[in-house]
Amino acid sequence: MDGARRLAGRWRRGAADFSFRIRLHPGSPQLNAAPADQIRLLDVQALDTRLSQLAHKRTTLPEHEEIQRLEADLAQLRDLLVAAQTEVSDTAREQTKAEQDVDQVRQRATRDQGRLDSGMVTNPKDLESLQSEIASLAKRQGDLEEVVLEVMERHESAQERAVELGGRVESVGARLQEATARRDAGLEEIDGELERVRKERETVSGAVPEDLLKLYDKIRDRENGVGAAKLYQRRCEGCRLELNITEVNDVRAAPADEVVRCENCRRILVRTPDSGL
Asked: Domain limits at 117?
């Protein structure tokens, strides 16, 4: 009977110890690191978070969208300006042709009127034909002059449109240049801070044990950029979930140099004086 009790006791202790190991680091070998190194890991995490924020800020500057919109507007305005300038050229040629047609009809009418006024045409039939042609030419000239006026109006309208579009192209181009300058200044500032934070991260991470940093980087790549989280008032700051009493007891019982993991998000849990243990 005593042997059975001792065997049962050993089984319960072994099961509890196995359960403890599974809760803290299931499927992974035990890792130990000095508490100061674990806390230093939070500094690395803060710097990595800042790097992620800066990278996001770099790609989401409001000037990016503004520049894209202005570039689209400018391209459209330039197309419209080219079309207006083409219309100016086309109507100018059309006006010249219409004015030439009017001049030709006018010259012919002047010539016929001269023949009529000279008295050289005496044959009644020829006289009647000449008078009819002069009347026809007068009507033709009037029609052509109407065409000239219509073309002139279209030409002037095209010129005004081209001038207006030219002004708008210049205005949008200036706004695009200004937005580009603001974007470039913003990128330069962000890149400067990125370089500073990268150097600081290199310095801080260099003081973290290699195996601990390797585990942290592996988890961070898998868990949306967060590999280590502070245990604050019994809550994991990574997943924002509070540890249950069993988990709290397991973490409390773990040696100070044991690297523990959150049961919920699997991130490294860093214990501090305000962990609430």
From this structure: 62-197
